[in-house]
Amino acid sequence: MSFTLRQLEFFVTLADTGQISKAALRCNVSQSSMTVSLKNLEEQCERQLFTRHAKGIRLTSEGERLLRHARQILNSAQLAVADVRMPSNELQGPLRLGVTETLSAYMLPTLLSDIAARFPSLELELLELPSTPLFQAVENGDVDFAIMLISNITLPKRCETEIFFRSTRRLWTCAGHPLQNAPTITLKDVAQEDYLLLDMDDHIPIVNSYWGKQGLNPKVKFESRSIEAVRSMVALGLGVTILSDFVYRAWSLEGNRIIRRDVSNVIPSMDIGAVWMKDRPLSGQARMMIDFIRDQRIY
């Protein structure tokens, strides 16, 4: 069995977009070329990796497992190319980086490993804070720049930002949930279900915004700052939630399955990127680090 990096790139892009047409456009290939490549990938795995539905595709449990490995392989390949192109001692000395709690959990471990391998002479200083105090740290010059959920807060015009990636928000349910059989799902459908609300990184104002635009409110059964609690309760069938693909895992800590579905209403993506001040230009080291982070497949 031998996968090509291009096949894995197609597969990861399909998982991120949920539609072959969008994935083909993003990868700059024809839909037929992408379809053939994905079919060949399934044949090599001897497993069905995704199923089709009215709005696009859904990964099977085998597809979800392959997705984790595919992201790691693509990330390692990019890291190898970057290592060859740039001397490893180009970044050295102190660099102060701020992060929010969500990014510490879901982005920072892999990122730190890549940075340590790529820039062994760099002295990275980390500061984790909620969004508002973290922005204040950026404003005060306590960090060189911060990685934040840019879409979750309103930043003043005196800020500069650069988005690394946008993560789609989807409905999460347990396996076998009745909504999984619906041809399409709307927020009106979700409003009939017990809702598990995550209170983390300024998430609630975003929730209130897109529900409010539909004149609806979720039927909140439980509100928690613990994403693992929400994940476990969804997997046990105690409620549903809408969260981004960035924090999605196919299994709860107890080993129960979680299924994603698209919602037909417009739900804003979760945008992750760097924030710094316009009147305090980035140093060469900070600019190089932002370029490095942008090129990593850590989502």
From TrEMBL:
<dbReference type="InterPro" id="IPR036390">
    <property type="entry name" value="WH_DNA-bd_sf"/>
</dbReference>
<keyword id="KW-0238">DNA-binding</keyword>
<protein>
    <submittedName>
        <fullName>LysR family transcriptional regulator</fullName>
    </submittedName>
</protein>
<dbReference type="GO" id="GO:0003700">
    <property type="term" value="F:DNA-binding transcription factor activity"/>
</dbReference>
<keyword id="KW-0805">Transcription regulation</keyword>
<dbReference type="Pfam" id="PF03466">
    <property type="entry name" value="LysR_substrate"/>
</dbReference>
<dbReference type="InterPro" id="IPR000847">
    <property type="entry name" value="LysR_HTH_N"/>
</dbReference>
<feature type="domain" description="HTH lysR-type">
    <location>
        <begin position="3"/>
        <end position="60"/>
    </location>
</feature>
<dbReference type="GO" id="GO:0003677">
    <property type="term" value="F:DNA binding"/>
</dbReference>
<comment type="similarity">
    <text>Belongs to the LysR transcriptional regulatory family.</text>
</comment>
<dbReference type="Pfam" id="PF00126">
    <property type="entry name" value="HTH_1"/>
</dbReference>
<keyword id="KW-0804">Transcription</keyword>
<dbReference type="GO" id="GO:0032993">
    <property type="term" value="C:protein-DNA complex"/>
</dbReference>
<dbReference type="InterPro" id="IPR005119">
    <property type="entry name" value="LysR_subst-bd"/>
</dbReference>
<dbReference type="InterPro" id="IPR036388">
    <property type="entry name" value="WH-like_DNA-bd_sf"/>
</dbReference>
